TrEMBL record:
<feature type="transmembrane region" description="Helical">
    <location>
        <begin position="169"/>
        <end position="193"/>
    </location>
</feature>
<dbReference type="InterPro" id="IPR017452">
    <property type="entry name" value="GPCR_Rhodpsn_7TM"/>
</dbReference>
<feature type="transmembrane region" description="Helical">
    <location>
        <begin position="62"/>
        <end position="86"/>
    </location>
</feature>
<protein>
    <submittedName>
        <fullName>Olfactory receptor family 7</fullName>
    </submittedName>
</protein>
<keyword id="KW-0472">Membrane</keyword>
<keyword id="KW-1133">Transmembrane helix</keyword>
<feature type="transmembrane region" description="Helical">
    <location>
        <begin position="129"/>
        <end position="148"/>
    </location>
</feature>
<keyword id="KW-0297">G-protein coupled receptor</keyword>
<keyword id="KW-0675">Receptor</keyword>
<keyword id="KW-0807">Transducer</keyword>
<comment type="function">
    <text>Possible taste receptor.</text>
</comment>
<dbReference type="GO" id="GO:0004930">
    <property type="term" value="F:G protein-coupled receptor activity"/>
</dbReference>
<dbReference type="InterPro" id="IPR000725">
    <property type="entry name" value="Olfact_rcpt"/>
</dbReference>
<dbReference type="GO" id="GO:0005886">
    <property type="term" value="C:plasma membrane"/>
</dbReference>
<dbReference type="GO" id="GO:0004984">
    <property type="term" value="F:olfactory receptor activity"/>
</dbReference>
<keyword id="KW-0812">Transmembrane</keyword>
<dbReference type="Pfam" id="PF13853">
    <property type="entry name" value="7tm_4"/>
</dbReference>
Length: 213
């Protein structure tokens, strides 16, 4: 999912830099936005599932194997794919309703969904509704689940008497926690901020963080 997510905009960015051509077709822009939403949402959902997995492994180690069985893993994976497809099609459906655009320039190196929607000269109600609805579903609720998981994890780890045991337990979460902070901190911030007051420079830096870094 990470490789596919990055591959939706990096090859095009490299081609633009080498050819000094910053033009993308309308169909190409919608296609890029569709894949960006699909794999970005999948990344988002998988990070939430991974937090749940860490929560079970550390807080309920004796029941981990029985709870996190192959059937549940497949079900969670299919749920992630379903939510991702729904998000991708929702963005495309809204974008296809626009009949005119007040500008043809996107202040970023790829077709970011909220920036594309902001170019429309149609009613802003639907655009803002979709932006904040998707932001809540893919940003607020997953973050709430991750924070809850890590509150329980920290509480459990602190009860371990041995410092080596505490380090060993929490070290299994360090890589996941780093990615969560980087991905959510920059991704959700630029997604929601672009609907209110968008700074092109800050937006591109944040976009580089969660798409490339």
């Amino acid at each position: 999912a990470d490789i596919c997510f990055t591959s939706t905009m990096i090859p095009n960015m490299i081609a633009d830099i080498s050819t000094h051509n910053r033009v993308i077709s309308y169909v190409g822009c919608l296609t890029q936005m569709s894949f960006f939403s699909l794999f970005g949402c999948m990344d988002d959902a998988l990070l939430t599932v991974m937090a749940y997995d860490r929560f079970l492994a550390i807080c309920h180690p004796l029941n981990y194997v029985s709870i996190m069985n192959p059937r549940l893993c497949v079900s969670l994976l299919l749920l992630c794919v379903f939510i991702s497809l729904l998000d991708s099609q929702l963005h495309n459906l809204v974008a296809l309703q626009f009949t005119c655009f007040r500008d043809v320039e996107i202040a970023n190196f790829f077709c970011h969904p909220t920036q594309l929607l902001s170019l429309s000269c149609s009613d802003t109600l639907i655009k803002n509704l979709v932006t904040y609805l998707v932001g809540a579903i893919l940003g607020f609720f997953p973050m709430l689940g991750i924070l809850f998981s890590y509150c329980k994890i920290v509480s459990t780890v602190l009860k371990i008497p041995s410092s080596v045991g505490r380090y060993k337990a929490f070290s299994t979460c360090s890589s996941h926690l780093s990615v969560v902070c980087l991905f959510y901190g920059s991704g959700v911030g630029v997604y929601l901020a672009s609907a209110v007051s968008y700074s092109p420079r800050k937006g591109m830096v944040a976009s580089l963080m969660y798409t490339v870094v």
